Each structure stands twice: as structure tokens, then as C-alpha cells.
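Supplementary material to the annual report.
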Amino acid sequence: MAVVFEKPKALTDAVLHYCPGCPHGIIHRLVAEAIDELGIQGKTIGVAPVGCAVMAYDYFACDMIEAAHGRAPAVATGIKRCRPDNIVFTYQGDGDLASIGMAETVHSAARNENITIIFVNNAIYGMTGGQMAPTSLPGQVTQTSPYGRDVKHCGWPIKVCEMLSTLEGPEYIARVAVNNVKNVKNAKKAIKKAFENQIQGKGFSLVEVVSACPTNWGMTPQKALEWVESDMLPYYPIGVYKDRSAAKEAE
Amino acid sequence: MKTTQILLAGFGGQGVLFAGKFLAYKGLVQDMQVSWLPSYGPEMRGGTANCNVILSDTPVGSPIITTPDVLIAMNLPSLQKFMDTVAPGGTIILDSTLIQARVERTDVKVCYVPATQMAKDAGFATLANMILTGKALKESACADFAGNRETLETFIPAKKANLIDANCQALQMGYDFEG
Amino acid sequence: MAQRVLMKGNEAIAEAAIRAGCRHYFGYPITPQTEIAAYMAKKMPKIGGVFLQAESEIASINMVYGAAATGCRVMTSSSSPGISLKTEGLSYIAGSDIPAFVVNVQRGGPGLGGIQPSQSDYFQATKGGGHGDYRMIVLAPASVQEMASLTIKGFNLADKYLMTAMILADGTIGQMMEPISFEDAEIEHYEKPWALTGTEGKRPHNVVNSLYLQPDKLEIKNFERYERYKIVEENEPMWEEYMMEDAEYCVVAFGIASRVAKNAVVAARAEGIKVGLIRPITLWPFPTKALRKAADQVKSFISVELNMGQMIEDIRLATECRKPVTLCNRAGGMIPSPDQVLQSIRDAAKGE
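Predicted assembly:
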């Protein structure tokens, strides 16, 4: 019988713990497919965050380490500096990467650490039950912004790609989404490129994946994906924000 | 059993730490037990600097000097701060170009060495520290005076080797100074 | 005997670490330990190693965590306020059972405190500092030579017991120069099958992790870890005894305080007071047996510390309060004089 669909080898057989309708499963799969297609599973070391993806170390079949909240880029730096021939990636959420770990994010980018960062932005703290995230939208209702995010009181959401692309350091900064088939396909390309960049020694590559959190947004999965399109993407536009090598070629 | 505790004090930039280092290396070269402890931190930047050097033929206990056998004072605040701590029978060596004050104590030997003026006259204005150190070696006999060049060579980087002659000369001037 | 050289305590640590096979250093500037970073920055690029100045102490300890997870010998160094920031990583390293080497050249606290020598991080180092049940091997050098020898020892112990070894020094020992000779470092090699090196398709994936959501599994992890700690407590305590043979009074002091105390012991002996010194070299594991034995012999103990009285609690625990323990201390960056310690010994001898 012809196999038309199979689980990527870079994923283990563990059953994912994510909520129904959560796109983390899709994003895990995209990362695993990229690892499979590039044939790098045997030399890949992944860094799991604190947040919903905290147990990613059980799901990826490569060597894995669990980092403290926000510290994944520092942990990845330590690994990569010891083992420059291995492929090192982090998988982080918005609270992890853009709030508590912002310093680690910015400085690993500024150093152009030759690592790959998969940044899942779903505008909320999922694991702890739906608190306001650094990327929660103005007016967004969360457990800790019950009257909607008041930007006068708690500031504006952070546009990570826009901010990091102002730095000289990083090689590749892109934002993708996984709310429809076309976007998922493009997300895959960007993620694969982020790994290829590392293989080619080009340096820091970060792919922001605009995702959804039906459970904590209080929406059906379908409605959540629609909300990504209607509310998230206007604030967080999809696109390549920095691609040093491409820019050089274009010159 | 002989132990000499030497306290060097002055402004930052007068070469107090360097002179202390020289004494410590002298001890090292002569197979003695040695400790060298600097003051550290922001007070060094333009403020006072001091360092504690202990030379001994037995293992050094505390590297912190509370009653020095020898005080080398390169400015008035340092003299005032430390002169009463000098052990009875000890020696105070001060730069009399920069310090006009006299020491009232009668239970210590005081050497007034116009080191800054002597250094200036000799054409190496920055080596008052080494003139005073030469005098300290004479007075305390804490280490053999011979072999200064070899000692300096052990810790002065090669690119600054041209300074060794002047340092040796300054040490000799202090050693020969009567008073 | 190898040739003697004069070196600062901080530099001795750095050189010894390199000799112990450490090729990765991650740190953040703070007084009074910057010579370690400066030495590493100069040396590492020339020997194929990595010196990286991190964006914070938090980042640097997490770089250590990542690097250690690959099986490399790696270190960081800091001083008191910086160590507070590193305690997060120290807890994760402990919870993941991987070796690391950390230096704390203490300064006065709490808060930003000062920059002069202190021993006020004794509790932080020996009782945990970070969250959770864990221990670190804590080594307290009292000389520049020991800064080097205990560094090499620390790397070996960390690998042997899969835990953090910490040098708990202070500004004095870090800044002072003494003659030191580097013997050939005895590097002990331990297999590291848990290391993250990439599976190469030849083994199941390794996971370095401290998360166990099932409490029964987490309990087992803790029990196993403490079984290992028990072996450390049994095998690894180090201490020095000085004039203890006929001592009726016992001074207990570590690090720079022990140097001052030694002077005072000599002075007290000259006055006819039979006093000796026990100097813990490992603060954890604490030399409990030595203290317990001394409690059978002496009339009282005097704990000399550069803090408000921290080790004194361990002395009381070790001796089960069988003999009185008095405190002779300075704090905030001040150091007791030999006279102050001598007076405490005299007071003890008078039974005061």
C-alpha cells in the first residue's frame, strides 16, 4: 500500500497534550518535517521553553533540553558554542520569548548566534490559563486584562519581528501564520529556511508563527482561526522582515 | 624567623601597587613566603590606593596588615591614616616633597625622603615610588637588595623593558639616600 | 615542584579552570571578580576555547546550563548580587543532574551592598539559594594556591557527582597575590552518556530536564539525588586542623577569616591559652565529623565569620549544641583583626 501521509520521523510517538484545535501540533509537525527533509535529526538539539510547549522535549525525537522560562536562547547559545556542528533550535511562546526572555532574545539576535528560533505568538499565556501576554492586542480580554488590554495602563503589544529586524546582527527574521492551508505551506518554507541558514552558518534565524489559542481566547477553533485573520494579522503582518543573504544577492 | 609587613599608601597613579608588586616579586625570587593585597574598587580611581605586602620565611597568616613594620607614605592623607598603626620600632618612609608634616612619634624611625624632587631631578618624574622602595629595602632589610634587575624582568612585560634601567636607578638612589 | 609564580587569586582560578579542561566561560562583569573574565577573554581564543560576555548573569548561567548539558567542562563566575541572579539556573542545573562549576567571589550585602570582602553568602551557597531541594558542593579556599587546587578539584567533583561545585571565595582572596605553583592538573574523566551530542540515529534521544509533573516521579528523583548527596557527605568533607591536638578551645573559620584566625591562635598560644583551629575547606559537605570529635575535647567553640553569624548554625548542628559556640564577626565588607579574634579567644578561655 502506498503511504500518502505519515508522521515525521523527528517526532516521537508520544501523544501531544495540547488542547483541541491548538495549532502547536501543526507547528511541531512543520519543524519536524523540516528536520526530516534536511536529514539533520541525528545532530539536532532542541530547547523547550516554559509555557504550553514545555513538554516539547517529549515530542521531538532529537536530543532535547528543557530551559527555564525565557532562557532558551541562552541555553541554545551554550550548546551551540560547545557543539558548533550540531543544529540547535529553540521553540518558544510569546510570554517566554517576548516578556521574561526578551533580553536573551535580543542579545542572541544581536550576536547573530547561529541558532534557529521558532516563536509561537498566540497573544496569550496559555499554560497558566490565559493571562495577558506581551503580544496581546489592544482591547484584548484576558484573565489579567478583564476589561480589555488598556494600552494607557499596561502599554502596547510588542512587534518582535519589526523590532529585531532593526538590529545588525540577525540573518533572517520572518513572520508566518498557520490559520489556513496557504499560510501553513508558507510557514513550512520559512521554518525550513531558518534551519538551512543555520546549516550554512549564516546565523540567527527567527520565525514568528502567528498562532491561535481557542481555549483561552474562549472561541471555537474555527472562530479562533478567523480571529487570527481579522485581528491578529493586521497588527502582526506576515512577511520577511530581514533576510541578509537575500538582500546581498539583490544588490 | 623573620616577617616584614609593609604598607604602601598614596594617591592612585603614584605607583603604590606597582612598588608593592616589586617587593612581592623580590620575595618570590628570593624564595620567601609572600602576600600582596591591594585596596580595590572605585576608591582607586583618583582616590587613595594602598597595598599590603608581607615577606616572610614562614607561611603568611593573614595577608591583612594591621600593624605595619614599614609604612611608605606618598601623600598626607595616607600618612595621617596609617602613621599611628606602625609597630613600635618600625619605620615610616615618607615623600617629603609632597608631605610637609613631621611625625611626632618617637618610637619609630622616620625617613624624610624628597623622592618626588629626586625623581624629577633625575629625569624620571614618575619613579618616586621606587626611590621610597629602595629606602625601605635599606631600612628594613626585608629582602636582599641585590638582584633588582632580575626581579623587575620577571614581571615587567617585554614591551616596557626600556623602563627597567630607570627603575633600578631609582631603587639605588633611595637605597643610597642618607637621612 | 613546579615553578612558583605570583598570581592574583582570581587569575589562579581562571588558569586552573583551563588546566582542568574548561574551554567555555560565560559571565557578566561584576566587582571583585572581573580578573577571571579578563583572563578568560585573553586566553580562551588562543586555545580554541570560548569566552562569551553574556547580557546578564541570568543569561550566563543558562548558557552554562546548555553548555554543561553537552558534556563540556564549563564555568561562570560572579560576585554576590550576580550569584543571586544565577540561582535560578543553579536550581535547574541541580534538577537536571548535570555538572557545573561556579565561582562566587563574595562582597558585602544584602542588596547592592558593597564591594569589599564578605562571607555573607554562606547560607545561600550551603543551603540552596535557589528553589527546591538541592545541594551544591561548596569549596572555600583560604589561599591563592587553594583557589587553583580547589578549582581543579571542583571540576572533578562536579563531574563525579553530577552537581554544581561552587568556589566560595571573597574579595580578599580574589584580589591578593601569592606565590603559586601549578602541578599537572589531575583531570578525572567520567562517562557522560546523558550528554546532548545529537543522537546520530544510534540511540534514543537524550533529554536534559527538571520537569516532572507526576509528584511520585518527582519524589523518586529527589530521593535518588539525595542518595547521591549522602555519598558526597560521606566521602568528600575536607578540613584543616591547626594546633588541635591539646586544644581546649576551638576556633572555626574558613577562607580569609581562617587566615586572620590563625594569627590569633598563635598569639593566644603565646599567652598560654590552649586553642586550636578547624578550617572547613568544604562548607558543603560540612566537616561534621571533625567538629563532633572536637566537641568531645574542647570547652567551647568560637566561630569567626565575615557575616552576622551563618556558619555558627552548622557548628551547633554538627556538635548538637554540646558545647557553647560564640561568634566573632565583622560584616558589610569589614574583616576582623587578629586582635579582635584574640580577644574572643581570651573571653572564651575566661568562660565569658
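Chain A has eleven helices and seven strands.
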